[in-house]
Amino acid sequence: MQAADFFIMSSNRLSPVLIIYKQLIRESQKFTLYSYREYFIRRIRDEFRRNQDLKDRSKIDLLLKKAHSNLEIIRRQVIVGNLYKPQLSVMEFQSDRK
């Protein structure tokens, strides 16, 4: 099974793995702080790449449950993080000047 087959089911529907991956990435992009945003996106990509060759259905289901739990944590942290206006980092300050 190739990595592309793992993410897309035969009936042209997106697999639950791809759906949760996209949700995690989208939600992580809502962090206002650059360092948090980049940290979570990097961790999500690394974790999904590490498990892309996984074939054991029970292990995949367990990891999907964990991903859903992490999605809820990220959503809460985005809300809490956006309650306060942080000072811009050097990286954000440079991108805002362009």
UniProtKB/TrEMBL annotation:
Gene Ontology biological process terms from the UniProt entry: iron-sulfur cluster assembly
Organism: Didymodactylos carnosus
Cellular component terms per the entry's GO annotation: L-cysteine desulfurase complex; mitochondrion
InterPro entries reported for this sequence: Complex1_LYR_dom, Complex1_LYR_LYRM4, ISC_assembly_LYR
Name of protein: Complex 1 LYR protein domain-containing protein
Domain Complex 1 LYR protein, first and last residues per copy: 16-72
Similarity-based family: Belongs to the complex I LYR family.
Xref: Pfam families: Complex1_LYR
